[in-house]
């Protein structure tokens, strides 16, 4: 019988794309204790952190913008109702 694998996947959605960090754990390793699961989760988190760190560095290299990404409508009060 072949050893079954557990795939752990974390998806990170950023404005410049969606990134995925995955790691595989052997089912038999999980029966031996939490150390292998902890190591697998740590490995996956490390991969996600690398993606986020790279994205944050890229943001730091871009000039700041004063423009908002959303359209705002000016609210005007009706002068007739105020009097």
Automatic annotation (TrEMBL):
<feature type="compositionally biased region" description="Acidic residues">
    <location>
        <begin position="68"/>
        <end position="83"/>
    </location>
</feature>
<protein>
    <recommendedName>
        <fullName>EKC/KEOPS complex subunit GON7</fullName>
    </recommendedName>
</protein>
<feature type="region of interest" description="Disordered">
    <location>
        <begin position="62"/>
        <end position="83"/>
    </location>
</feature>
């Amino acid at each position: 019988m072949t050893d079954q694998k557990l795939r752990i996947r974390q998806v990170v959605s950023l404005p410049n794309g969606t990134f995925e960090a995955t790691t595989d754990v052997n089912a038999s390793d999980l029966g031996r204790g939490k150390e292998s699961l902890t190591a697998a989760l740590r490995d996956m988190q490390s991969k996600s952190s690398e993606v986020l760190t790279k994205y944050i560095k890229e943001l730091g290299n871009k000039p700041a913008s004063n423009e908002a990404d959303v359209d705002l409508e000016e609210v005007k009060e009706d002068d007739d109702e105020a009097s």
